[in-house]
């Protein structure tokens, strides 16, 4: 055999990702046996019945079949603004959806992204050196989903095992997997659950000092805002501290901001790292290197299957940008239909457009329902015995802590399972709810969680939470009684 | 994603289990990635050193940026090392010219830039196959399927096909992440298409759908290459995806030369020689990359030659990486495409005998749907533990884009006789392929008429790769301009005619020979003008530099 497991790239083997994870395997088996499984483990809204927004799908359908635009009956199927927008995007391409674009994405779409960023962040604003505040289309690269962008940037940063990347724990495992594939070192910093998953800069300093004492050069820091799996929104003050920290320690900041549309409270709206950085002024705004990532997979769009995203670089020297461009060019170009989705996302219908009302109704409907679902879920978890859950301020997940009694820990040990896996498996068997154990994201020693999405249909939510509570409370009682653990 | 997350969970759990108890919970910095010695800086033995953009010549000289964490000094050196000439310096110059042309038309002896640098047919006016796009439009906006007006605007079989495809997608959700190998029903269609092509069975579980063929190649390189001690045998001239990917993954490109004199023939003796040579340098050769039909060389391998290659890989224990993205692009009656899998199976070799990866793309063929980023690799002859690793790497990126997946299934299962769209589909397909054949022939003949130029015929693929016998004077002038002689020629050609081609040095070539790659993709009505401009330019170039 030409390729044995033993001779594979060690970094690939090390990459922390097992295809047949125990819970997924079991859930699939149960589904095959005919049991109804509620998949609350994937941030994949359309798979759980969320309908795509109508307007963008109309525009992209027309771009797919541009000959429809010449058909006199096209107006029977498509509104005039969708037709106009399809013509607009086709005019930005050199050969429609079937031609490779510039490797960084269509210049016209990148310009729309830059304009969106300027509108969102309130820049440019009058200022002595305002030019540097412009969002520059040359520094925006479109990608096949945000993950590809993260991989491209980390590939530039990581030279070997001596290079470390600060990653929050709990984290979205894209980061650990990519760092591992690239042969770098993951340097964890812990989010503080008792402070609503707050990010304490003192922890960061400690993490960096400890990594350095082990000979690791910390090169970059990842923040996920709103948090995945933790759902917290970072405050402006916190972002300032983080940016100052990156400035002092000379770290590239990777801002995973893919959930920026998914905000479910009003106290802490989403604020981009770029805006805070620009607000801070010189020297920070000129020297902190920032890459921020966005996607069409999340928000009220949820267009995961399109694989569309972008990243924006700030304070990257032109020659480094050229190198990143070169690497992007080896993959030729991101897929063009997703580029158009991105254009539509940053430039949706405006008041007065024919499709505006429908678009607004659909997008608001999704967001408001998600907001209600976030609350139902948090409240549901908090009503359960030995479960405490921070409110999902943003993103798409709930990450309750499950306080397992000693009896359950003992039982898990006897079953040869990590305690949260043990709990999640029992939950799956009893209720069909398929979750992800907290150990998949990293958590403090001796503390256990699970992650669910808040994506099941709203009308099914009360029943799901009831069934969860029934299981949980029985579970807790069972292990309390058997081992004499008494609740406070 | 759920598979990803849960798998992650399992591994972290395993780690947790293995880790000894730690008394100080609040201070436990866990390095999740294991440490290993820093990667060596040594240049891979056969790392391609192409003419490079000026940016990588003077790393870090930009003093104003030295306080930043990521500069040319501190970027991953593997990134600096890789080159991709198809979109390199000449293309940047062309883009600047194109911009300038808009405002400064009179300054140039031409009125448009003709991009013959890249196999991007629809950017040069090739029309997409109507049926494919009808199906894609219906799948993009499925509400159309409920409208009666749709029947007036779409062919009936495109509507049927869209329904059939939607039925294969869980929840009919074209906006959801799919299985990381691609939607199962679409892989079934692809496997059936491979079976129909080869006459041997194909398993949908062997198919990994990718965003174009390139990510599949990267994935295999990632698996095969641990260090510069791992070598990949690549044809020279080669498509620079291979050299770039090998450089990015820190491996060694082990070259084997195609024989230009025998129509870019692939000699087994050359493979053996280069393999031995690599071994003597301490390189373990892991795989053999074969591009058939050839890029940039356009040859179509004979079945007999392919059998010898299969035997060579089997004997030497090499993975055969078969780049078969041009399988529909064969232009000569005396040659036929045979997949390596078909050849291996017809020799009686099964799963246990040879590890074979076949790459296919929707960017080439008669469809030329580059912007869709669709493709697949068919992976056979690997143990299940290796297969799991491939799946794991695929899953880190969640899945490939769904419309690319749908299109990949369509090109492997196009309309059949009797279908509503069959006649128009065949007419479109044959129109494109026969026009490509005509263009290939016209350009090849024109090139062969030029002084000092010889050009093998394009039996397949989308390119001509003429050899230019450059006069010493031109070589000296190139050296004075600090540029490779073929790049010098190509820049002159661009500035004089607006025609963009890629210098042979971007693909590597026998030292001392000079080539360029020119696609056959400009629309047929433009070919005579291209021939004229090229001929005129070449004459004046030779007049200037003839020894």
Strand order of the largest sheet of chain B: 2-8-7-6-5-3-4
> What's the shape of chain B?
globular
Q: What is the general shape of chain A? A: globular
Indicate the mean pLDDT of chain B: 88
Question: Based on helices, strands and strand pairing, what is the structural class of chain B?
Answer: alpha/beta
In total, the number of strands of chain A is 14
Q: Sketch the major β-sheet of chain B.
A: 7 strands, mixed
Low-confidence stretches of chain A: 125-133, 483-488
Structural class of chain A: alpha/beta
Number of helices of chain B: 18
Kindly provide the radius of gyration of chain A, computed on alpha-carbon positions and rounded to a whole number of angstroms. 24 Å
- Kindly state the percentage of residues in helix of chain B: 40-55%
Span from first to last CA of chain A?
Answer: 60 Å
By CATH reckoning, the class of the largest domain in chain B would read Alpha Beta
**Total number of β-strand segments of chain B?**
14
Mean pLDDT of chain A: 92
Identify the CATH architecture of the largest domain in chain B.
3-Layer(aba) Sandwich
> Helix proportion of residues of chain A, in percent?
40-55%
The fraction of residues assigned to DSSP E strands of chain B is 5-15%
Largest chain-chain contact? Answer: A-B, 141 and 136 residues
